[in-house]
Structure to design on (285 residues):
């Protein structure tokens, strides 16, 4: 089997290497020619990925990188792992997803599977991305090609964590799309969690990240409040986590860092307005 992974960042590169280790031939695609050159030379630009791991897979022929998106016609599946930031008005920016769809659509062959992994609002895969792919390819999702969403799950700070062992949520546009996506991820991931639709899978990822956002913000605020009272927040958390149910420890830090955690609540808040709903659990203008 040969697949393409589009976007060779902290999500796409580890995923590419895991599939390559699982006897899948992987073509990594990126618009950044410098990244492509480094990878093909067996070098790494991500701190927790050893160059030797890349070099070994390059030598074996199981992994290679390119900027040539016309090579999509060579593969059976395409996995999209591109950024989903915010605009200056704090609204979702899915332009990278849309542009990727436009670049791969003309080269899609029949029966190709396209999977989006980028964190986004529910409906992105089966509306926005689907429309671009159908327009550019002249084919219909669910009939001529397969479409799915499977949210990335990375824990780069945990050296004991790896892509293979992290359970993978998978949602398909149709039951046949789900079946194809499950077959793909089953080659490289130990545990798969099928859900009923792309939208459920998209919503799952938002829940995971908003859960972290709310709880990190809470414990950071409690650190300030308890500190003013002369109470050690670390001791409080250690005591609270002895409760064997209904509690998960979060620890104070420098703020809501990273790419996803500070951004993802805005994705759900924006989409909720379309349905006449306003989120009140977290403070977002």
């Amino acid at each position: 089997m040969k697949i393409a992974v589009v976007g060779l960042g902290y999500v796409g590169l580890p995923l590419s290497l895991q599939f390559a280790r699982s006897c899948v031939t992987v073509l990594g695609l990126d618009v950044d020619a410098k990244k492509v050159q480094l990878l093909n030379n067996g070098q790494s630009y991500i701190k927790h990925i050893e160059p030797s791991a890349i070099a070994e897979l390059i030598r074996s022929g199981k992994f290679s990188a390119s900027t040539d998106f016309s090579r999509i016609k060579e593969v059976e599946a395409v996995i999209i792992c591109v950024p989903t930031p915010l605009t200056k008005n704090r609204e979702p920016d899915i332009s990278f997803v849309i542009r990727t769809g436009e670049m791969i659509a003309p080269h899609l062959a029949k029966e190709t599977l396209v999977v989006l992994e980028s964190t986004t609002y529910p409906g992105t895969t089966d509306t926005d991305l689907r429309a671009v792919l159908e327009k550019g390819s002249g084919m219909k999702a669910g009939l001529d090609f397969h479409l799915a969403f499977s949210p990335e799950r990375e824990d780069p700070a945990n050296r004991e964590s790896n892509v293979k062992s992290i359970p993978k949520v998978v949602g398909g546009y149709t039951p046949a799309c789900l079946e194809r996506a499950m077959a793909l991820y089953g080659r490289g991931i130990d545990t798969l969690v099928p859900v009923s639709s792309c939208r459920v899978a998209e919503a799952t990822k938002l829940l995971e990240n908003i859960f972290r956002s709310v709880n990190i913000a809470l414990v950071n605020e409690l650190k300030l409040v308890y500190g003013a009272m002369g109470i050690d927040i670390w001791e409080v958390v250690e005591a609270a986590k002895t409760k064997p149910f209904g509690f998960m420890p979060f620890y104070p830090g420098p703020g809501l860092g990273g790419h996803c955690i500070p951004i993802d609540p805005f994705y759900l808040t924006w989409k909720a307005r379309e349905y006449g709903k306003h989120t009140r659990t977290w403070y977002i203008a």
Q: What stands out?
A: Strands lie at 2-6, 25-29, 63-66, 77-80, 113-116, 146-149, 168-172, 192-195.
